[in-house]
Amino acid sequence: MTAFKKLQENNNIQELIKSTFDADLELAGNWGYTKEKATIIEAIQEGMPLSQMEHMVTSIRAHLEMNITQEQENRCAGINANERAREESRSEEGIYNKVTYEITAMKEDLYTAFIKEYKEGYGKEDFDLNEHFKRRKEATLTREVVHYFEVSRVQQAPNKH
Questions:
Q1: Which of 75, 78, 109, 127 has CB atoms 3.0–4.6 Å from 121's, for a disulfide?
Q2: What's this model's pTM, rounded to 2 decimal places?
Q3: Is residue 25 part of a domain?
C-alpha cells in the first residue's frame, strides 16, 4: 500500500479548502494530526451537527492526502471516511474531540475500471455481481486515521440564503 504523507502545515487551511474544494468552512488551526495541531472549528452551518462538520473536514484531508497531492499513478478514488470512535477532552486550553476514522479508497485506475465494468455488465446475464463486489472489496485500501478538532469556539453560523 502507498504510504500517505501528512499534509504540510498551512497557515490558512480555510483558504486552501475554499480554493481547492469551493467550500466555505469557518476553520483555523491545522490539519489535526495532533492535539497541539488541531483543526479549530469556529462555526458550523445552522442545523449541521458538529460530527457532520468534522466528517467533512476529515474527508477533505483524506482527498488531499490520497488524491490531490499524489502522483497520477498513486492517486486514489472512491475515498470514504467512517467514524469509528470519539473521545472528548477538556482542559484549560479548550474542548477537543479526538475522532478515529476508517478511510477506504481504491487506486484511481482500478476504481475507474470497476465502475466501467459495473456500468457495462449490470443487468446482463453473464455479469456476476457478487464476484464483481468481491473483487472490489479485495482491491479496497483501508487506513485508520485520527483527527483532532478544537471545538471550544464553535458557533452556529447563520444560514446563507
A1: 127
A2: 0.90
A3: yes
Q: Which residues pair with 76 in a beta bridge?
A: 107
pLDDT grade for 30, boundaries at 50, 70 and 90:
very high
Report the sign of the C-alpha dihedral through residues 66, 67, 70, 72, in that order: positive
DSSP bridge partners of 41: 27
Residue 97: which domain range?
13-105+142-156
Q: What is the 3-state secondary structure (H, E, C) of the chain?
A: CCCCCCCCCCCCHHHHHHHHHCCCCEEEECCCCCHHHCEEEEEEECCCCHHHHHHHHHHHHHHHHHHHCCCHHHCEEEEEEEEEEEEEEEECCEEEEEEEEEEEEEEHHHHHHHHHHHHHHCCCCCCCHHHHHHHHHHHCEEEEEEEEEECCCCEEECCCC
pLDDT of 161 > 80? The answer is no
CB atoms closer than 10 angstroms to residue 61: 23
Using left for φ > 0, alpha for ψ between -120 and 50, and beta otherwise, residue 78 falls in: left
Residue 159: the pLDDT is 59
Residue 6 lies in a domain: no
In a domain, 121, yes or no: no
Amino acid at 119: K
